[in-house]
Request: fold
Amino acid sequence: MPAGTLYRGREGMWSWVAHRVTGVLIFFFLFVHVLDTALVRVSPESYDTVVSTYKTPIVALLEYGLVAAILFHALNGLRVIAVDFWSKGPRYQKQMLWTVVGIWVVLMVGALYPVLGHAVRALFGS
Amino acid sequence: MSADTTPAKTPGVGPVEGVTLYDVDHPAPVIEAPRKRTSKTPRATRGNFEMAAWLFMRLSGVVLVVLVLGHLLIQLVLDGGVSKIGFAFVAGRWASPFWQGWDLLMLWLAMLHGANGLRTVINDYAERPNTRLWLKGLLYTATVFTILLGTLVIFTFDPNIR
Reply:
């Protein structure tokens, strides 16, 4: 790494990269999500048809990825606020990032069954 | 407070820099304000839009943590998760003004938060003025369209559409 740069590829930079990537992904999903919900103004059948594809195992996996992105963006966003507004925020930014990662892992394990359970049942029978 | 007079002892700072510009309390070097305000500076130069946008990201972010995580809990976790969702489920929730208000606030805040985030991304990576113009034009068009469409759907929802 060259000396004298602001960011040197450690926790500060990578959390920024992850925040940016997850933010863009969530925003693109949001467009699609408003469009699919708008189908309730077309007919109950067209809405239910599109939502039924959301219940397939492959899309369930994508939903798990979406949950992962949202949870990281939410938790790291709170960390960014703490860095900006808490006087000791910059000093503890690394510890706060690893706290974020820890909470994220716990929540992702907790989301395994609720988000992916129905997909497993669809694949292997109930 | 003057971090730039601290003697060099931070590991990783080479002799080229001479003095370290930052320590654990100043993770980045102090950057002088590009335009110092003087008595000759006009009262309003360019407005405070960027600061308002910065503040909006943090305020809307805190609210969205509650709204979006609550939304995920209801839609993907409780009551059978995604398998319960259908027209009847939407009709049941939007019969209540509380959930209409929840979804309306979430729609507006999330779209504006995301649009401002993408505006920052475009500002960072698109260098040619024409590229910036077109990308932002596309972004603002899609944002206005999506907010208006979502708002219309929430307010004109008809459970007896059939």
Q: What stands out?
A: Chain B touches chain A through 50 residues (CB under 8 Å).
